[in-house]
Amino acid sequence: MKTKLLLLLACLTWGGGARAALIYSGVQNVPIPLTFDGVYLRSPDGTVSGGFPADWNTAPWINPFFGGVAIANGPLLRPIITGTDQILNLAVGTPIDSGGNFVAGESGSSTHVGAGAGQFALGSPGIIGFAFKPTAADPESYGWLRLIPNNTGPGSIVDWAYQSTPGAAVLAGVIPGPGTALIPEPGSALFGVALLGLTICRRHRHRVEQPPRRGLGSWDGDQEQRPAVGLG
Questions:
Q1: How many domains is the chain built from?
Q2: Which end of the chain is more exposed for a tag (fewer CB within 10 A), N or C?
Q3: Structural domain for 136, as ranges
Q4: What is the DSSP string of 202-224?
Q5: Do residues 111 and 87 touch, judged by C-beta distance below 8 A?
Q6: Angle 189-209/2-14 helices, nearest 10 degrees?
Q7: Residues 78-122: pLDDT tens digits?
Q8: Does the residue 121 lie in any domain?
Q9: Residue 194: inside a domain
Q10: Which of 156, 180, 94, 184 is nearest to 130 (CA)?
């Protein structure tokens, strides 16, 4: 069923019907160790590191640590916050766009877990909305990340997604959003399946759009088949 869905979405994307594509990681369940280092995740390529990355200031990194009860972010990935720096747990379907209250730059959050409105619950998934730039010179794009915090063992980064078109809104936790095509993240197994589906779609479309010629008839794209007229 999953394969058929990906083939269909690949066809829709190649056909030009979608203006933006939702790039989705698939379920990853990246562990967040109960340590000071935790884990580092770079968007949009999904690179994971267990140590401080050399390009922290020049690439979009987020760093959940201590099982996810603390979260740091680099200057090129800015989570939606409430108050001064508390990362907000977004409800599924919340729009993430230029109207979001994003933290101003590099920051850290240690008050996002609790029983209050907009806080994360230990052992339960919550959603971080963020704005990011692949490099400092790039325009801003929007995405989300699903995270399960834990203070007695490893937490987890469940999955994440972002819009391929800079400035295009994304809906928190929604796969795919209305009017968008779903594309697996490059490097994932699902991405290879989608590419296979794209190839199949192209072959199928070629067969549909290029009907066989009949005798001396001619085919000119949008025109009807016209038989040749004999002389005399």
A1: 1
A2: C
A3: 24-179
A4: HHHHHHHHSPPP-TT-B--TTSP
A5: no
A6: 60
A7: 999 999 999 999 999 999 999 999 999 999 999 999 999 999 999
A8: yes
A9: no
A10: 94
